[in-house]
Amino acid sequence: MAKKYVYFFGNGKAEGSADMRELLGGKGANIAEMTNLGIPVPAGFTITTEACNYFMKNNETYPPGLEAEVKDHLKKLEDAMGRKFSDSEDPLLVSVRSGAPASMPGMMDTVLNLGLNENAIEGLIKRTNNPRFAYDSYRRFIQMYGHVVLSINPGLFDEKLWGKKEQLGVKQDNAIGVDDLKQLIAEYKSIVKRETGAPFPELPEEQLWGAISAVFKSWNNKRAISYRRLHNIPEHWGTGVNVQAMVFGNMGDDCATGVAFTRDPATGEKRFFGEYLPNAQGEDVVAGIRTPLPISEEERKKGTRAGQKTDASLELRMPEAYKELVDIYQKLERHYKDMQDIEFTIQESKLWMLQTRNGKRTGRAAIRIAIDMVEEGLIDEKEAITRVDPDQLEQLLHPMLDPGVDQKPLAKGLPASPGAACGRAAFTVDEALRITGSGEKVVLVRVETSPEDIDGMKAAEAILTARGGMTSHAAVVARGMGKCCVVGCTDLHIDTASGTFKLGSERFEVGSYLTLDGTSGGVYAGKLPLVDPVLDEYYHRFMKWVDKHRKLRVRANADTPADAKKAREFGAEGIGLARTEHMFFKEDRIPVVREMILASNKEERLAALNKILPMQREDFVGVFEAMNGLPVTVRLLDPPLHEFLPKSEKEIAAVAKQMDRPVEEVRNTVESLHEFNPMLGHRGCRLGVTYPEIYEMQARAILEGACDARSAGVDVMPEIMIPLVGTKAELAIMREMIERVAEVILKDRGMEIPYLIGTMIEVPRAAVCADQIAEVADFFSFGTNDLTQMAYGYSRDDSGKFLNAYIEEGILPKDPFETLDADGVGELVRIAVEKGRKVNKMLKLGICGEHGGDPESVHFCSRVGLDYVSCSPFRVPVARLAAARAALLKSDSPELEISRSA
Amino acid sequence: MAKKYVYFFGNGKAEGSADMRELLGGKGANIAEMTNLGIPVPAGFTITTEACNYFMKNNETYPPGLEAEVKDHLKKLEDAMGRKFSDSEDPLLVSVRSGAPASMPGMMDTVLNLGLNENAIEGLIKRTNNPRFAYDSYRRFIQMYGHVVLSINPGLFDEKLWGKKEQLGVKQDNAIGVDDLKQLIAEYKSIVKRETGAPFPELPEEQLWGAISAVFKSWNNKRAISYRRLHNIPEHWGTGVNVQAMVFGNMGDDCATGVAFTRDPATGEKRFFGEYLPNAQGEDVVAGIRTPLPISEEERKKGTRAGQKTDASLELRMPEAYKELVDIYQKLERHYKDMQDIEFTIQESKLWMLQTRNGKRTGRAAIRIAIDMVEEGLIDEKEAITRVDPDQLEQLLHPMLDPGVDQKPLAKGLPASPGAACGRAAFTVDEALRITGSGEKVVLVRVETSPEDIDGMKAAEAILTARGGMTSHAAVVARGMGKCCVVGCTDLHIDTASGTFKLGSERFEVGSYLTLDGTSGGVYAGKLPLVDPVLDEYYHRFMKWVDKHRKLRVRANADTPADAKKAREFGAEGIGLARTEHMFFKEDRIPVVREMILASNKEERLAALNKILPMQREDFVGVFEAMNGLPVTVRLLDPPLHEFLPKSEKEIAAVAKQMDRPVEEVRNTVESLHEFNPMLGHRGCRLGVTYPEIYEMQARAILEGACDARSAGVDVMPEIMIPLVGTKAELAIMREMIERVAEVILKDRGMEIPYLIGTMIEVPRAAVCADQIAEVADFFSFGTNDLTQMAYGYSRDDSGKFLNAYIEEGILPKDPFETLDADGVGELVRIAVEKGRKVNKMLKLGICGEHGGDPESVHFCSRVGLDYVSCSPFRVPVARLAAARAALLKSDSPELEISRSA
């Protein structure tokens, strides 16, 4: 028997099914599934991916028998729809679409209204009673076919169209009348003749074969090949071709078209929710030219979203079609066990379903729907957890732009820290404090931020920077504060001299109101309405399930007692990273820190350190108290010392005056500490080795703080973390020093406080030498920010110059500072985990880079076997959910891989 | 039978032998070996490492039977030497030394003259007839024993000594007379009493047990533990203790002491060569207070090294002892099959051998000795190759400081590029050119160099910088030019304003003469005499053997036809790295390069690139011609574009004027290209991706150049190398582009030129993702400079601030920029080799980092299976030798590991 290359669907039965995705492509398999459910779907057929493969391997010829098979199926399709190609009374028109096993941009998309010709146009006019619509469809069909199938430069058609509109003095396409459309059609056809040397195909069968061959060929076009190469999609998959009858919702008053959600996508409430337009095409609903009407009576009575009452629900106007639609949506929800987003058309009172898919929803709705569906017995708790995307959860934790507002952003940047906020623009910390002092809200607008801006960032509602990436200073600090932040906004130009800034082409004064959306990266002029976050009972119930199912622990990165409390409220189970340097920048400390740095000998340095000691100790006591009973990982000083010193001549002079030192001396120190590549410079444990007294003071502060807290009845679990270790010897020397300090303190106090000493793994060498390092480490905490910088050789401060281009060109699937690069950086993590655990079974493993709060990265951490992730307090719930989802997927990691490459 | 803990040697027989190193320690095993050869060695015994282990494990008690065994052996020793402890006529004195299986600093070294007490001192005076010597020995013994065995602060003794000298108004120890020495001895003893609560031990047996126990304990002192931890020496090895009779060369005219080499250590000539002093101690020969006399008559007739004739050779003065010494040295050379450095003492006409070891020699001597010994049948060719250290070979290739000159350097820096040179100091390129213009030689003295200094570096004989490490710009460029260079000279302070500089505390004017030794890092004032390199017939013969036995190919890093020719002369088998950017800095090109960078759009950029194209093409034709028949790897543009732009306001203004552009515009470009961490910035293939037209021009220049060269009859083998690749996609895109360019050019020319496209592996991610990258690479070239920077997170420009401290504290065994870090960076290389070869069997593997010319690193490259190493032309012979040695050792790599940790 000859191979079967064509699969039919229609009249309530399909030859294919959902599990034939490889043969029929994703789209073909889905249509078949809907048809088999008894849902009324316009009939059609799918040509298999095998046919495509044959075509490509055999010099672009069709497999034997395909032509006859298509002819047979065309006949079946005409019978099923009761219409014929080229019929001047009631013509069959079809759509032709590609459909590969994985979704794949770059291939031929869709040709609509195939079958239109001089006969069929007559029929279409008769059936729709709308000559303008019919001629416009014909014009569009020729242009689309000409471009997609015949490879004609679409600009040639557009020129004619623009010329016509100019001639008529109109702006909209729909202002062109029938006669002008006819003339355009003639012109389009002569373009086709000129460009291809042949007339536009009149026969629908010829049109169809042209489209089929174009779909096949599009599998090998350049964009599709690049996409496959970058996403590891096999060449041999091929694409299917879907040929489906067109139906029309604009043939008269017994016609309609609409879209609906099976539950409320904003709140998750269980009610049928949608809009329709009588006597209209699908585009009309979307285009917003006519105002859509509510589907149900219930909704009509409540009023539409815009608040207007109307008197024409589908339920009232077409009760039978409505009843069928309700039956269908319930069936679809039961079948797919999820809220559906459906599209339908009613043609002459007959309901046709055009599409069903899982509906997009807000985070709030996602949680409510998941919980309701568990109660309805549709899904179980585990499934419920997979139904809420961690990013959706994030929405619940921050204010959002009111979804009702429909305004375009003036500029876009990177969505560095989610939530929305508005305030008056300030360029400096002083300005920011002045504005908040007068009781108004502020948005800090800067080229980039530095540690000296901390007070301004604290005062601000939101931060906007022109430079920097997802792990720039502004981004990291803002996320830590749970504050809205947009960074790397290249359309922002600040002119401090004139006190103005430009967003794109618009200029604003300092003090103007801005609204930022840190979730999308949008920057808006003025004060837009926001909605506050709601953590309702659904949320709390859902998070209980989440915690029940996850295995990874979730800690927070927090530097202060206030942050620690916040983190605990969000469910953090410890602190994974307390950065001591952030404490150094406080206004009352920075002078002493500078004293320490400017010290000309060890004695002076020790004297300054002795002043810092009690302050640091107090910090730690506070953090230990907040985290009573939970572990706290404190990282010793990491940044290079020059970060604490002024940079400009003016600042140097100010600091010299404040410190009562010669300007020359301060400048010399600043110059001698200058580094060409500070990221790879004198920082981390290199400071600990060359200035042991600094680390010694910090170890003392931590351990004395732990003793003080213990004396106050707090259950302390300090973990001391050495940054930037690259060799075993570094950690061994630091460990010896800390143990020596600890022994003295604990003996003095007569206390036994168990503490751990471990290291960041953030230098690639440390990852590959992890077996050596693990011999002297109680824990590893992967510092994946720096590890990413060094593994790729990307400075996070500079990579903006090429990173966007890399992501746009598909060289990088995602920003590696946002989502951990599993293949490269992840491989280093995996090597370190394997080598570390091999020599030290008790080794505790965590991650404290910004990736700890990124869901996909949390999945990676779970796969690779870490014990915990640590992230900024506001990301803790997100990480908890991601951890639970990872635990549920763990036995099935290939699925994760596929979902990523799809 | 009880365990044997003590091994005797003496009277021509030893219980131990050379292969008992683990039990007896290195020193004990060697003395035993000498004794067994029938060489007269002062008798003694070795206490085993097992005894030490017992002692440590058993709460510092001796193993049962040890005390009796030592007592027995002491008796044997007294018999063998015919002397007794505490004898007031002829006392036995012994030395006590530690000796572990591996050489290990930090442990107890030596106690000499043990056995001295109130009786023995009388005997010593009688025997030496030299009361001053005897009392001084006693004083030294008490101080040494007090410090090393009794742990008394040696400063306490020194204070007394200084006090005495002050009181006497003398400066030298040897100006203190007998009575004062007696008084000092009494004071020393009372210090011991006060500090230990017990009198200084009078009984030699008690002294001996104190010393034995001190040696055992020193195994666990802090420095020794740290050393073992850093060098992976097992704790359980323990140390042996060597107790050996003292002999004296200062007992009268029938006594003498001397040192000798069995061949001439400067030239390798086969003749006995040495110095002695009659009636003297060993220290006297070394201390240089008395002028040593020649050993042989032959030598006496030639005159000593200092040119003075003398009439008292040992041969003449003590013919019998001399004859015995000649027999012994010949026996030792035959036994050890290598030139020996021997120490001897003649006591009352009896010859005693104190030490023999392989003698140090110059490179020239090493080669000559190796070749002569092959001819003498002592060793074979393979062994000969292992006898010449690659670093010794280096000496032959450059001018050296005249070894006869005995001057201390004023300052020291890192020995960045070997050889010695002198010239007048110049601070700037202009000054340098002015000086060379007037026919004088110049040394370029700078804080650091940048690509703009190239012309000055070319003009200079040598380069001296205050900053930078072994792979700084100055170091790399100087090595490429084979020019003497000292970098990171922290004692150099340049004051451009006054036109002076300081070396340590001495100030010099610009134009002063300096002499640099790039082999040692020494910087000298004035014009010291140099000796020119000699590549004699021995060298050429030796290098033939070397090439016969090596497997690794050796290429050179060379950017110009002149360098390429030089490289070929030194035996390079291809070019492993031609850096196109060095060509960009030429005076006639930099304006066009700047035009390209300042271009405001792609058209302008293309116009500038079109001007560069013919220049680059000419460069490549020249290089291809020089390397006719050998492969040439060309790396496309690597540095960030801002490296080609001016930095200071003044330079910016100059460039703006030269280019006829507004200063503002040039400044804006400079600012917009500024990077915080240029090492991790917009460079390498990131430029190729964002400005494909640059790489396209370069690919065109290479391939057109190859065609031109081929037309001229040259056999071309171009290899195009993409720098800084981190992902497969980057290389795939670049490869596609180059192949497109190549197809057009080769079709145009109607030529078929095989070419390769490959990548640097210099980003850690590339190493761990090498399997992916190898799918689109013909070759990998490990860029271990950048790989080291990124694997460790050390900026080579900044690491000077801590790297020296790291090496001094033993955190790093060596500068990882000089010798490849096998554990970390090497592991990344190993991973990449393994993963790369797995998917691409034909993958060609090489290294082009500075490590390619470092012998230890060449060994690593051989172990890991690379095909070739590439280094600067002047290092090629060194790399060839290292490669041969590696091939000979390859089957035996553990040995290499041990020799490294020893």
Please describe the structure with a list of short key phrases separated by commas or semicolons.
32 strands; 8-stranded mixed β-sheet; 17% strand; alpha/beta; homodimer; 902 residues
What does this structure look like?
2 copies of one chain form a homodimer. Chain A is α/β, with parallel strands linked by helices. Helices cover 47% and strands 17% of the residues of chain A. Chain A is built from 37 helices and 32 strands. Chain A has an 8-stranded mixed beta sheet. The first copy, chain A, has an 8-stranded parallel beta barrel with strand order 25-26-27-28-29-30-31-32, surrounded by 6 helices. Chain A has a 6-stranded antiparallel beta sheet with strand order 2-1-3-6-4-5, with helices on both faces. In chain A, strand 10 and strand 11 form a beta hairpin. The longest helix of chain A is centred in the C-terminal third of the chain and has 25 residues. The radius of gyration of chain A is 33 Å and the shape is elongated. At the A-B interface, helix 27, helix 29, helix 30, helix 32 and helix 33 of A face helix 27, helix 29, helix 30, helix 32 and helix 33 of B.
Provide a compact summary of the structure.
Chain A is 47% helix and 17% strand.
